Amino acid sequence: MQPPGAQQPPLYAPGSGDFTFVSSADAEELSGSITTPDVKLNLGGEFIKESTATTFLRQRGYGWLLEVEDDDPEDNKPLLEELDIDLKDIYYKIRCVLMPMPSLGFNRQVVRDNPDFWGPLAVVLFFSMISLYGQFKVVSWIITIWIFGSLTIFLLARVLGGEVAYGQVLGVIGYSLLPLIVIAPVLLVVGSFEVVSTLIKLFGVFWAAYSAASLLVGEEFKTKKPLLIYPIFLLYIYFLSLYTGV
C-alpha cells in the first residue's frame, strides 16, 4: 500500500525498462488500428486524393509521367477555319466575277487584292468535271493549263510594269472560268444549232476574258493593255476548246 497522496507509477516507463500489465477493460480503451495517411494534391483550389501508385512515382521523381497538358484552344477550330476557307468570301467573289458591271456596286477589286486558293481551285475542278466526256485526263490537263497559263499572264504583266502577284493572277483566272461554266448547260440545249452555239461560245469567252482583264489590267498598263488582254482572251478560248472537244 502506498501512502495517501503518492503518485501512481506509470503503466509504461521505457526510460526505466519497467513494463506494467493492464486489465482487459483498459486494453479496450487503448485498442485501435493504424491507417495509411491520405495524400492530397491541391490543384486549382480543389483537393484530390492521390493513389499509392501516384505517390510512389512522385517520390521517385517520375511525377512528370502523370502530368496532363491543357487543351489548346487553337486545336478545336472548325475544319473550314483550319483550312482557311471562307465560304462567304468565296460566294462574294463569285458574284463579282459573274456580274462584272461597275453599276451593280460590287467591290470587284477584292478578287484581286484578297486572293485565295480554295475558291479558284473549286471552280477549276468543277469546270474540269463538266469537261470530262469520259476522259479523266482532261481534269489534270485543265489544272495544268490553269497553273501555267496564269504563270504566263503573270510574267507578261510583270514585264509590262504591272504590280501584281502570281497568287492574284491565279485566283482571278480561276474565278473567271465561271462564265464558261454558266454557258455549259446552254450549249447542251442548243448544241444542234451551230450559229446559236457559236454566238453563245463567243459570249462566254468575252464574258470570262472581260471579267479577268478588268481585274488584272490596271491603269499602270496605259497604252499596253491590248498586250495583256489578248493572251487572256486566247487562254479562255483554249479552256472552252477543252470543254467542247474542238
TrEMBL record:
What is the protein name given in its UniProt record?
Protein YIPF
In this protein, which residues make up the domain named Yip1? Answer: 106-241
Q: Taxonomic classification, please?
A: Eukaryota, Metazoa, Chordata, Craniata, Vertebrata
Query: Which species is this UniProt entry from?
Result: Grallaria varia (variegated antpitta)
Query: Where does it localize?
Result: Golgi apparatus membrane; Golgi apparatus, cis-Golgi network membrane
The entry's family comment says: Belongs to the YIP1 family.
Keyword annotations: Golgi apparatus, Membrane, Transmembrane, Transmembrane helix
GO terms in the biological process aspect are:
endoplasmic reticulum to Golgi vesicle-mediated transport; vesicle fusion with Golgi apparatus
State the PANTHER family in the record: GOLGI MEMBRANE PROTEIN YIP1, PROTEIN YIPF4
| A GO CC annotation given for this chain | Golgi membrane
Which top-level group of life is the source organism from? Eukaryota
The record's function comment reads: Involved in the maintenance of the Golgi structure.
